[in-house]
Amino acid sequence: MTGSALYIYVALITLAAIALVVLILKTSAKNRQLSPIAGLSFVILLAGIVFGDEQWLGYGLMAVGISLAVLAITRINIQKRKK
After folding, report:
1. 35 contacts 7 by C-beta, under 8 angstroms
2. pLDDT per position as a tens digit, 45-58
3. CB burial of residue 80 (10 Å; 0-12, 13-18, 19+)
4. How many CB atoms lie within 10 A of CB 7?
């Protein structure tokens, strides 16, 4: 495992831990459902990790997954503001 791959794995684990803490602390039990976009972004991120040997494919999938996750977060925030 190269140094850059190790940094990526550590960063992903850190982001997952932060997301878990935010999810537990900031939402109630009824709002903990995973949206379809967030689920898709999670699957794409995992595919990026699995295909990490091909750097262009792995990093590309991770970038798409992160972009979809940000999109899902902004959609949730916009919906909360409208209520």
Report:
1. no
2. 888 888 878 888 88
3. exposed
4. 10
